[in-house]
Amino acid sequence: MKKICMQAEAAYAGERIDKYLAEVMNDYSRSFLQKQLKDGNVTVNEKPVKASYKITEDDEITVEVPDSQEPDIQAEDIPLDILYEDDQLLVVNKPKGMVVHPSAGHYSGTLVNALMYHCKDQLSGINGVLRPGIVHRIDMDTTGALVVCKTDLAHQSLAAQLKEHSITRRYRAIVHGNLPADEGRIEGTIGRHPTERKKMAVNVRNGKPAVTHYRVLERFGSFTYIECRLETGRTHQIRVHMSSIGFPLLGDQVYGPKKCPISSLQGQTLHAMTLGFLHPKTGDYMEFSAPLPEYFDKLLKKFR
Predict the structure, then answer these.
(1) How confident is the model at residue 79 (pLDDT cuts 50, 70, 90)?
(2) Catalytic position from the list 139, 141, 152, 297
């Protein structure tokens, strides 16, 4: 059992504790937090409370989170498109439709299942059995370059570089509409959507700072082909930021139009093209490029 302690801020005074916890503990689902309230695992000033309890400033809140029972993840012989590999790490080109690490409903066919087969026991263990070697991730329907750590040394080094925002990450995307400027900078905190828990949103309470730079590569009238450079790496960052300025990604039915104009398209047109970082052992700067996937290339040719 893990204990998470916090002190309520004045801005949340009068808010129901279940809503408060859903905002400040957004790594957990609201239903999970409500179950902890029901089971008596949430106390305020050392007394158990119900979901309807309204917090006051400086309440001392403690949430006891049960230890998770992690499933036994199996190695699977799934082909990998490897851009680079050595004894510390590997860089893979993730295909569309592949989940990075196991989670509810996705315990097989993930990148981790494939890595466990390819690397055997040579994956960093810092993130536990569900995420061995995984130091960052990209969405299921996003393609492109992803670094995987074989050793704890590599994992610690890459995690530090991610925290410092020193890793080069450039993406290619197609967005709805014709962007008025050839380049721009989007800055706005990103956090869990207050009511739609599977979505992220800009400028919400407890959001984390996020900065995205974009530049136009080609214009197609109703669509624009762009490159995005990340300063930060928040969940769904490019998708949320581009949608927030009125130019959602083509195919993104979460943050864009519910009906996609390209019927054959599966998910957002987003590709992690370039990834650069300092090698954890040598200190040398390394940069890798993942070629555009076939579906993306065909779309560009069709628009041209």
Answers:
(1) very high
(2) 139
